[in-house]
Every structure is written in structure tokens, then in C-alpha cells.
């Protein structure tokens, strides 16, 4: 292959790259370009002519005397690192003379370059004319135009300056092509034939955009070498048997449940043997665990024939009277299964992650789970754990999370060392024609951004599909990079089995109704060539049909359903201790004071010698040390204490998000940067204890949807880890709302999935505008599942039943729940926002409610008003109360846990001040924040006998103002109201 055009254009367009960063090949190429640009000789490096310099270079490496002495001098200088422009000499020879030495035939020096141009055009554009559509009516690239410079018929030879008389002339082949195999020369006719067979038949290859010569040559060798796409009779018989299972499974469901939605695979039955081939080949190369994500089309078939879920477990879910089970439809469910791979006789673990109808939302979740499994196994190269992602063509092109996930693929803390993407290209999205669904030629073009090779293949050619899948696995194993297999197929039925596709795609579906199924096509082929007999084929069908019928009979047993089959991330041993269920209690979370001091000292130091930090950071570290001596912590140091104590207990901590290493508000500084040595960093928290769990803190790409999904997947892998995602500002979770709604809030209810993901959402009304103020807490509260009208029963000692029933919270518990924390911004440096060691030492626990402990608490009968609040507004309230000298008459109680609502502790506070007004005060607008959530719960506690008044900002569409003066005026207004002790007298409620 020639030096990449993209590489050369970029390099020359943006100035000369420093020679010290170049490989010898790159240096030679750029030096040659510089020589040409000087006008010293003909423009021999334009287009395909750049091949000749490269070919001459390779020839020179083998034998320096094989080229002209001036070229020998040029290559020696360039290889030695001569600065740009100084390797060449003015007496370089005419390249046309060297060309004859490099690529010649029987006197055909003039036509040799034209023949090589023909080779290049097939490499770059051959996929545009490949026969990819099984229906034969559409062009996979949405363009029926055949590039004029791409030879497909003999009569176009003239475009290359060639003639029919040249067809039987023999050309010596350059070493950069593999179409000759062991032959070094071929006739032009044979060259064209082999190129068309490789690049213009049922496989379309897109890879010439990759800027790595080695990778491109690797792909060329896999597909150009004659005879590579051959299968033994045994391999063909196995392929046929897998097609039988894939096809007959769908046929069986259609016969038994003709009126049920199942999102069948008809039209792409080859996907099942394709996945099994990927898994077999990966197992052969050492992979032990495959994690998969996919949309609903074909999921039941994958569960049955790839994951090997028991058929009766699938069939029994079609029973409309089924009472037990998940809160989701059967074609959204996942599974985890360990079994022996029959092709390799090795143990393989397969996990299919549950997914909602938000088709591509599962992509980052799968990647995060894969990364976690690799991390905990020490699998730094992805040799043991890998991911497979299946996509629909319309969703792959249309869903932005696909792009976000691809951009995580090569980031150090997010890479999974290569994912195999399989696109089920139905050439339609629900009812939308692809010409209306995307602007790119192919649905897979998004993969080009990370230089992932794309293998398009006609799904009605099963052997071509199997070969492409094998190459995809070998690519991942060799280069640890993503690869895409685009199965160009069709959808035999509508979007679902009840849909009528002829309404919108009449011509396509008239052709589909005539289409011979791939199973019959392939069976006829194998019967015709004697690989199998008709009797053997029919026996294979009868055998699988019998398996389905027997499973159907067993599925009638109502006791057969097992929830364990829906778990895609089981946590063996976590929920039990010595075979018994763990005690449902909440142990103290405090730690010894000497541990607090040790962590505080670690947070204040730089553990590496000779490491020079920024002067401003030195002051921050000194401040931490001073706080430790004074036995107090602010938010940043408190976070350090929490993380550090978990690390000592062997709990892995991972903190991810935009700029989390330093912290958006410059408060965290968990990664220190040497001010004099580039890329030298230090993470002090990884140096706290000799035997400690690792701490991972990593800045993410500028993504919320993809990164939050990734961290959710990471948290799925193990209960013995603290995985945190921090939004740069709390409201930025808006663009990750799909992950919150579909996975975090409802994951346990739908899929029995426990998860301990923690969301850190900076929140606080400070006049910084609507997009930098509110984390929209009302959204999370609205999705909380506790009943505002039901007062829960509490034992004498607080138990965890309320927490167990809710959908999100987490403490040190025998189960895992997601946690949403509205983290501070201005309070990060507020002098009053600190906690004493006394609140963190051994025997202490998280305080769901922090009651009034000042003068008002000691004279409760004199208290005229109790203000309940949460968050930053507390500090505004206590300051104003002191200014108005109302500390004996107004009590202020903080709710640290909003949901599930702390009914028991709030009741104690209400009973303590029986004669006082009850006020809920928040800085958020009335229709935003917490009021609509807490109001009915307060009323439930008092049985609707006392009002709970609201004080705060008036309702508004935007969550905050961006005008500082307007912010202060509204703050002043509600502070005046909340401390006006006559404000609510005589008012009805």
C-alpha cells in the first residue's frame, strides 16, 4: 500500500513534523515530498506515483546497491535523521528511470503506473460497486453511480490509458499487493479478475482511510491472498446447522405465537452463526468472557442459540397470565451464563446486558462492564475479556451515543482494547427509508472517526460472513482496536410482527416476499456440491424442531420460571454470608481518629521525591494539613477521608467525569502535575497504605450520556467498589437523562439489577444562570418510588427496610442502590461548611436529619417557627436568624436524606415543637426543587392537622437567573418572609 494520502496531506498542510517523531518510512516520504515541492524534478509523488518512492525504499533496505547512488545517499541521510529539506541532493535522477526498475513487465514501463492506479482504485472505492444487497434493488452506499475511475468492465480500460490489447500482457506485481499469492507477475486480465473478486463481490472493504501502513497491509493480505476464503466440509456443515437453528427458532415462534410481538430475526438469520463464529474464534485466542449488548431485534434468538438460555424459560414468558417476573418485556431482558464452548472445549462466560427500547443506550454500559471485568482480572490488553455490540443500521447512524462511545474506545481509562461491532443492516428504520435517515453513504461511517476498519458483507452469503467475522476477531487480537462488520440484509416482516411494511415500502417488500430464505439457498448449494445430502438436511431440521416442541411442553409448568436467568451481572456470595442471608442492618460508618489523621496527612503531602508542584497548590495542601490538625474537614477533605478509608478496606474507588482530577471548582487536586517534567503525575491517594485497593480518578471526554453509561456498566461488575460519576455542573446530567431514567432509576424494578453507582451533581443557586445552578432535584424526587401518603413502620432501632424498598440510595448496606448527591459549589470554601472529626470517628453514622442543636432546641416551648430545609440555603438562614436575633424563637432543621423520606426523624422534630409554625424553605423556585415532594409527606406525618408553609422563590420556567442583582433581590425577599413570624397568621391551608 502507498503511504497514506491522509497522512501526507495533513503533514504537508500543517507544517513539517519534527523528524525525531517520525518513523524512517515517514521521514523518507516527507523528505521526498519536500524535494518535489521545491520544483527540482517531476511531481512523481502525486497520486499513485508515491508508491514508487516507497517501493524503491523497501528495495533499498534489502540491497542499497539496487538503486541509483543518489537515491542511496538520499535514503541514508533521511534514515539518519537529516532535518527536513536536507536529505536530498540536486542531482537526484529522473524517477521515470527508477520506475522501470520497480514496476516493469515486457517493455511496459509506461503502462505499469496505470495498472497500479487500477489496483489502488479497487482498494479505495471497490466497496461502492460490491454486490452487497441480497435483494439486488438497493445500493448499500445509497448511490447507484459507479465511480468513473473504477474498472468494472473491459470497455473502461481506456480511462486508464490501457487497451484491450494490454489484457494478456504480463505485469510484474509490486510487493505491496497480495493478489498474486506466490506468483510475482500476472496478466492484466487476471489482475482485474482477482481485484474484482476481492473488492467487488459480496464483501466491501473500507479501510484505506486508516493512517497506519501496517494495519492496511494486514487487511489486504487477509482478503487479497488467493484461496484464503475456503472452508472445510465440516465447517460448512456446522454453518448449515447453525442456520437451521436460527431459522427454525423464528419459524417456531411464528407458528406458536403468531399474534405476539417478538422482533424476529427473519432476513438476517446469518447473525446467529456470525456471533457464534466470533465467540468460537475469540475463545480459540484465549478470551474467557464475552459481554454483549444489542437492541431487541433478534434478542430472543441470541438468548436461545448463542447464550444458550433454556428454551422453556423463553417460551413460558409468552404466557399472558404469567404473574411472576420482570417489569419489562421479554425482548429487553439480559442473561449471564457460563458454559463450555464446543468448538474449543474451553470454558466461556457470556453476558447479554438488558436494554430498554432506547436502542444504542446499552453501548457505553457494555463498555463500562467490560472495562471493569478486565480491570478486576488484571487483563490490561483485553486478551481475556471482550465486548460485542450489535446495532441496527438506522440507530447506528442516528443515535449520538454511538459517536460518544466510539470516542471512549482509545482513552486510557476507558478503552476495552477493541470492540467487535455487528450491524444488522436491514436497509430501513421502522418505516423510514435510509435515504431519509442519514446523510452519510453508509450507516457505519461514524466508525471512521477512530480508524476502525469496516467490513460490509452480503448477509445472504453465509461463508463470506463467516470469513469476515474470523478476520474481525483476528484484527482485534492483533491491534486491540474496534472493527465493524456490516451485515447488509433485509427485514422479512415489518418493524414488529403486527406491522404492515407495504404501506410505506411497497417495492422493497414485493421483492422480499419473493426472496428465497438464506437457509434454503445455502442448503441447496451444499446439497448440490455433495457436502450434505437432502436427508441429512431434513434430519437436522427435524431434530431442532423436536427440541423446540419438547421445550414448549415443559414451559407449561408454572413453576419453571427462574428470575436468575434475567441477571446479566450476578454477584455471587454478596447477598449471603456462609450460606445465610446477610443481616438487614446498617452498621456504623465512622473510622478511628488515627486513620482520619493518617488520611489527612496523606492528602496534604506529595509522596514522590523531587516532584515540583504549583505554588498555589502548595497553599492548598498546607490548608488541608492545618484542618487535619484542628480536627475539621471541608467537603474536599471529607471526600478524601471517605475514599481513603474505603481503599484501606480493599474497596476499589473509581471517580470519573469531566475534569474530576483537579475538580471543576479547583477543590479536589487528586492528580498532581510536575511543573517541570511533562506527563509526570502523582496520585497521592494511591500511596496511603501499603496494602490498599487501587484508586482510579480519570478525566473523561466531554460526554455525559456515554460516560455515565460507561460508569454504570463499570459499577455493575462488582458490589465491592465505589464508582462515582461527577457532572461538571449538576444540570449537565440533562444529556444523560436516558441512562438515569432507563437504567439507574428503574433498573432494579425492570431487570432485578442492583447497582451502587453514585452521581455527584454540583448544585446551588448563586446567580450564575440557569445552566450552572440547578441539578433539577425535582426530577429525581419525582422518580422516587416511596409513597407520600403511607407512613412506614419503623422498629425501635432504625432498620433498612425503607431503604431496601426504594429505588435509589446507598449507605454501608447488605445491598446496593444508586445514590444521587447534590454536591456544593460555593460551600466548597464556605468557612461554616465544615465538619468535626467528632462526627466521623468510630461509632458514628450518616445522619439523615440534622436537628436544631442551638438555643431553640433547649427551649422548644418558646419556638414559634420550625424551618425545614436542605442544602446551601441553611447557611443563609442561620446568618439571617442571627442578624435578627431570633435564635431562641426559630429552629432550623436540615434534611440530609430527602428520599426515601425520613418520616421517623421528621416526626420527632414535629413533636418536639408542637406549637410552632412549620415552614419548608428552599432557594429553588416553587415548581422546582423539593417542595412538591416533601409537602405531602409532612402532611402525612401530622395527619393533615398542621400546615407546612412554603417560602422560597416564585415559580419560574428557568431554574435560575443569570443576573447577580436579581439573584440577591430574590434571596432578600424570601429571607425577609421566612423570618417574619406573623407572615402566616390567619391564612388558610
Would you write up a description of this structure?
There is one protein chain. With about 1000 residues, the chain is of the alpha/beta class. The chain folds into four domains: about 180 residues, no CATH class; about 325 residues, Thiamin diphosphate (ThDP)-binding fold, Pyr/PP domains (Rossmann fold); about 190 residues, Rossmann fold, CATH 3.40.50.12470; about 130 residues, Rossmann fold (3-Layer(aba) Sandwich). Helices cover about 35% and strands about 10% of the residues. The strands form seven sheets. It has an eight-stranded mixed β-sheet, sandwiched between helices. Strand 23, helix 30 and strand 24 form a beta-alpha-beta unit. The longest helix is centred in the N-terminal third of the chain and has 24 residues. The N terminus is likely disordered.
CATH superfamily of the largest domain: Thiamin diphosphate (ThDP)-binding fold, Pyr/PP domains
Q: Could you describe the largest sheet, including whether it forms a barrel?
A: 8 strands, mixed
Proportion in helices = 25-40%
Question: Unreliable segments (pLDDT under 50, ≥5 consecutive)?
Answer: 1-23, 33-50, 89-110, 810-814
Helix tally? 33
Question: Strand sequence of the main sheet, in spatial order?
Answer: 3-9-10-8-7-4-6-5
- How many extended strands? 26
Structural domains: how many = 4
Structural class: alpha/beta
What would you call the shape?
Answer: globular
Specify the CATH architecture of the largest domain.
3-Layer(aba) Sandwich
Radius of gyration: 34 Å
Residue fraction in strands: 5-15%
Query: Per CATH, what is the topology of the largest domain?
Result: Rossmann fold
Tell me, what is the CATH class of the largest domain? Alpha Beta
Distance between the termini: 81 Å
The mean pLDDT is 85
